[in-house]
């Protein structure tokens, strides 16, 4: 067996591996690369290009440059003739090889790879030769292999066909429309000095584009390279082109009702076509720019649809030839479908984000102050996730706080999220307890997973999580149930903070063998308490245990002062805890408990006897006089309490609880008993004794309803004051 060469050793650097690999496919020759001290590097292959007889030009050559942590060149392997003229000197900054306008962007990329260790692959880049000419390469940035430090930068000086392939591959790596346009513009720099991508505004926003709108096309600059300071008045990234410019470009590329590329060869022709100094300032990048090629981004169809325009500008000494124009058209044609895919993703992203924002709570009611933050994952994710929060006052005066995390991203997750959110709200408003609501949501998720009734093909919401808390502002207690969700954080008025000891339960739609009744955790939340509900994106970090992440959240929330503006506090907590490179959405709901003042509520407990109604009227009448309630309101409340207590004595057993609450512009009356029957408003006539009491209740109140408790039910009704 042959003895392994040093370059095949596991300790070899990426520089050595690249150089060694070159020797297997490209004839060797030339001087050795220099290391930092100027001595020959014995392990690096010596490469030379050999001409292609058929094409009469050089094939692509791969070379490598090693950098230290200060981004200075330590050694290089750029001996092939195609790299001739590059001033590669050991000890000099690598960025000296770049055009000045590319230095900030490339420096940021280099330092990012140094910090994260994640490679940056196949960036189309221009390098400056000593004579002022430029070389287009495909540049990849890799971390140096241990124990070495620094970076290895591989460079491929590409043949035109390979450049087309590499550019198309790079452009299709993102579904973000801005990044897609930027990648296309960077690729087009191989043919010019400045490249710009102007997209139809409907494409930029994700809307549908048809041939009917092409006559009144509105263009927005989606990408512009290189990164430099542009003259005043020039249209830069994110700006809309002047109306006349948009009309002019759209008319030029749609000659004879067909999308065509056009070339304006010199500055005199450009000024004559644009016709006004204002348009020249808006569209011409500099005085040196003398020629431009405008290539339409066309989506195949019947008829074809123009998505936008790619512009490539050149100096006077570099006119476009027919071969270059064909290459430009081919690249833009190959990548137009990537732009349309990004448009579709943008539309879906916008729809889901709009739904997400719509589900964010507007208010928690008079007895709870709420604030929420929703932070989507990185823009290049597959779409907005299924995190959702909601808080809303219930008709009986309590407040519901809900947080959920639906599995997946995109429209399937969004549809499920919206359905679960609305279903939870409806069931809670109907008086169901949190555990009963989760039972219904569990069945819904299971049903949606059915292939025939699912909301999106191939999408499954099994394993989604949800946590529901209901706050009673009179007793200052919270009833909470969780389906696989992380425990909320409770901060007491004295500043003590800790996650609630909620019994773990599988997520929604778990297998039947794993299902068990949802538990209800009840705890005291005195006025001034703060409850934090959140999703896992806020506390999960691969580098630390989940318990530590929850502990960090508890520490952060405990510093929120009772006088702090809750919205600002929520944003501060999220900004301090959410990962910088988040892979999941981040959601936080803070709820500050206020409750009712002691003097605004009264509760009486009465035996279920025939005189209970009379006793209740006496107690309520005295309280209403103390509250200085109007006579007509007092008469309605007394009749209402009498009917509710009479029904409770007649149809239920055990003690009866009467509660009166002065809330806002109304009086909330509650009568609780140990019965479990549901009062219903029947169709009986006035002489029909059964259900007469509920008809009276219905006419006396603004709204009424029923909620169930562990010991029975509560019938509540609101009377306007």
Structure description:
With 721 residues, the protein is α+β, with helices and mostly antiparallel strands. It has 16 helices and 27 strands. A five-stranded antiparallel beta sheet has the order 4-3-7-6-5, sandwiched between helices. A five-stranded antiparallel beta sheet has the order 9-8-12-11-10, sandwiched between helices. Strands 13-22-21-18-19 form a five-stranded antiparallel beta sheet, covered by helices on one side. Strand 1 and strand 2 form a beta hairpin. Helix 3 (160-171) packs antiparallel against helix 4 (177-188) and helix 14 (612-626) runs antiparallel to helix 15. The termini are far apart.
Provide a quick synopsis of the model.
With 721 residues, the chain is α+β, with helices and mostly antiparallel strands.
Show the helix and strand layout.
Layout: H1 14-25, E1 51-52, E2 57-58, E3 61-67, E4 73-77, H2 103-116, E5 120-128, E6 134-143, E7 151-157, H3 160-171, H4 177-188, E8 194-200, H5 201-205, E9 219-225, H6 243-253, E10 262-264, H7 267-274, H8 277-283, E11 289-299, E12 305-315, H9 322-359, E13 368-375, E14 385-393, E15 399-409, H10 410-429, H11 434-448, E16 465-472, E17 477-483, E18 489-491, E19 497-499, E20 521-524, E21 530-534, H12 546-558, H13 566-577, E22 586-593, E23 601-606, H14 612-626, H15 631-651, E24 656-663, E25 666-673, H16 692-700, E26 703-708, E27 713-720
Antiparallel strand pairs: 1-2, 3-4, 3-7, 5-6, 6-7, 8-9, 8-12, 10-11, 11-12, 13-22, 14-15, 15-16, 16-17, 17-20, 18-19, 18-21, 21-22, 23-24, 24-25, 25-27, 26-27
């Amino acid at each position: 067996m042959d003895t392994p060469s040093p370059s095949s050793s596991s300790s070899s650097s990426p520089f050595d591996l690249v150089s060694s690999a070159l020797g297997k496919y490209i004839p060797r020759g030339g001087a050795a690369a220099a290391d930092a001290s100027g001595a020959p590097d014995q392990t690096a292959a010596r490469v030379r290009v050999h001409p292609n007889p058929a094409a009469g030009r050089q094939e692509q050559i791969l070379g490598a440059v090693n950098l230290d942590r200060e981004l200075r060149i330590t050694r290089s392997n750029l001996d092939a003739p195609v790299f001739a003229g590059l001033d590669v000197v050991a000890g000099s900054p690598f960025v000296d090889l770049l055009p000045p306008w590319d230095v900030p962007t490339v420096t940021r990329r280099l330092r990012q790879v140094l910090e994260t260790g994640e490679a940056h692959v196949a960036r189309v880049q221009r390098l400056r030769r000593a004579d002022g000419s430029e070389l287009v390469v495909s540049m990849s940035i890799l971390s140096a292999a241990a124990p070495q430090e620094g970076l290895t930068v591989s460079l491929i000086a590409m043949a035109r066909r390979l450049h087309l392939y590499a550019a198309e591959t790079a452009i299709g790596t993102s579904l973000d429309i801005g990044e897609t346009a930027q990648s296309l513009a960077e690729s087009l720099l191989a043919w010019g000095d400045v490249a710009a991508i102007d997209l139809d505004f409907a494409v930029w926003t994700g809307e549908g584009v048809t041939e009917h709108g092409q006559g009144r096309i509105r263009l927005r600059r989606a990408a512009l390279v290189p990164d430099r300071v542009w003259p005043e008045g020039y249209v830069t990234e994110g700006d809309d082109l002047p109306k006349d410019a948009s009309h002019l470009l759209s008319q030029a590329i749609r000659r004879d009702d067909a999308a065509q590329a056009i070339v304006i060869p010199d500055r005199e022709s450009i000024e004559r076509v644009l016709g006004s100094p204002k348009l020249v300032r808006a569209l011409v990048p500099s005085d040196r720019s003398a020629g431009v090629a405008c290539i339409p981004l066309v989506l195949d169809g019947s008829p074809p649809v123009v998505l936008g325009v790619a512009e490539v500008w050149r100096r006077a000494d570099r006119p476009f030839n027919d071969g270059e124009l064909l290459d430009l058209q081919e690249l833009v044609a190959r990548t137009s479908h990537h732009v349309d895919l990004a448009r579709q993703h943008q539309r879906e992203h916008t729809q889901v984000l709009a739904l997400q924002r719509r589900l964010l709570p507007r208010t928690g009611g008079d007895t709870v102050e709420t604030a929420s933050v929703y932070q989507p994952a990185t823009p290049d994710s597959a779409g907005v996730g299924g995190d959702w929060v909601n808080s809303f006052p219930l008709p009986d005066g309590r407040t519901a706080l809900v947080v959920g995390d639906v599995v997946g991203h995109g429209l399937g997750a969004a549809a499920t999220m919206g359905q679960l959110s609305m279903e939870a709200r409806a069931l809670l408003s109907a008086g169901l307890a949190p555990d009963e609501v989760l039972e219904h949501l569990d069945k819904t998720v299971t049903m949606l997973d059915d292939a025939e009734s699912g909301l999106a093909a191939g999408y499954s919401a099994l394993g989604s999580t949800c946590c529901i808390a209901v706050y009673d502002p009179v007793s200052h207690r919270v009833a909470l149930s969780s389906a696989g969700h992380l425990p909320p954080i409770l901060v007491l008025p004295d500043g003590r903070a800790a996650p609630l000891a909620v019994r773990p339960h599988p997520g929604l739609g778990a297998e039947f063998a794993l299902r068990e009744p949802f538990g209800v955790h009840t705890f005291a939340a005195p006025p001034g308490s703060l409850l934090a509900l959140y999703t896992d994106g806020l506390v999960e970090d691969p580098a630390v245990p989940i318990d530590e992440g929850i502990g960090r959240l508890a520490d952060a929330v405990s510093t929120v002062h009772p006088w702090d503006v809750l919205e600002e506090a929520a944003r501060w907590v999220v900004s301090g805890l959410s990962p910088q490179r988040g892979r999941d959405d981040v959601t936080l709901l803070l709820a500050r408990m206020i409750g009712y003042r002691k003097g605004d509520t009264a509760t009486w407990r009465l035996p279920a006897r025939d005189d209970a109604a009379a006793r209740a009227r006496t107690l309520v009448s005295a309280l209403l006089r103390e509250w200085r309630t109007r006579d007509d309101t007092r008469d309605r409340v007394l009749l209402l309490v009498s009917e509710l207590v009479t029904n409770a004595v007649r149809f239920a057993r055990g003690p009866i609880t009467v509660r009166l609450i002065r809330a806002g512009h109304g009086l909330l009356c509650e009568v609780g008993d140990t019965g479990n029957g549901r009062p219903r408003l029947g169709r009986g006539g006035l002489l029909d004794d059964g259900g007469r009491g509920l008809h009276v209740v219905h006419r006396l109140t603004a709204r009424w309803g029923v909620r169930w408790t562990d010991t029975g039910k509560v019938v509540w009704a609101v009377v306007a004051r």
